[in-house]
Amino acid sequence: MISKDAATVWDGTFKTVEEDAARFLPPDTPEAREFMFSLGRALMGWNMLEGALRQLLEVLADMDGGCGRATFLALTAETNTFGIESAVNGLMKVVLRGEKLSDAKFAVDQVTRLRDYRNFYIHSVSHLARHEGLTVAPSLTWSAKHGNIKHHTAQITARDLDKLAQWSSEQSAFIKALIDYWHPLEINGLVPPRPNRPETVPKLPKTYRDVTSYAFGDPTKRSC
């Protein structure tokens, strides 16, 4: 049943899917275009980093006796980044020692932190809004790890996305430089030096509320 107030607003016609879909797209404004550009850069930066991590796994596999490239691709082509991280974490402890192991651990730790940013930003962005004079993507997500249902909120800005792109590109370059350092090709009598570690990525800060503390009251008194 339509309320009297709603009936005075609704003109009695339904929009087509095509007409209604337009309101779900980002507005075509300079601020929105800047945000979408930053979102694209963040995605490309992450994809480069993921490619570098897969390359690192292939190098480690070769150091452990190797396998054919077709075999490697058959085993890893459908593996997500978390699976590649796990494989690198396990294999590097077998085939690396000393500074090589230390640098590889640093690299994978940074990938893990950046994956948290990437997942939180990319999977929670669905629309744009204005917040304190900026165009932002309000992030409203839920998690239920370890039996705790949490409601996470954030205001993601183009600057946040630019930082993710920068961090991802730096870590990607570091991993590739590590590989060149481990297996140097001499050029005019010179070999690559051990690369300097890039800026350490801070852990993703998340603001959240425990759902059971405000949405449902005492969960022990609920019947389902």
Outline the secondary-structure elements:
Elements: H1 4-9, H2 17-21, H3 30-63, H4 69-76, H5 81-95, H6 98-124, E1 129-131, E2 134-143, E3 150-156, H7 158-182, E4 207-210, H8 211-214
Antiparallel strand pairs: 1-2, 2-3, 3-4
Largest sheet: 4 strands, antiparallel
Strand content: 5-15%
Distance between the termini: 29 Å
Shape, please?
elongated
Identify low-pLDDT runs: 1-7, 219-224
SSE string, helices as H and strands as E:
HHHHHHEEEHEH
Compute the CA-based radius of gyration: 24 Å
Count up the helices: 8
How does the helix and strand content classify structurally? alpha+beta
Question: What percent of residues adopt helix (DSSP H or I)?
Answer: 55-70%
**Average of the residue pLDDT scores:** 83
Strand order of the largest sheet: 1-2-3-4
Count of distinct strands: 4
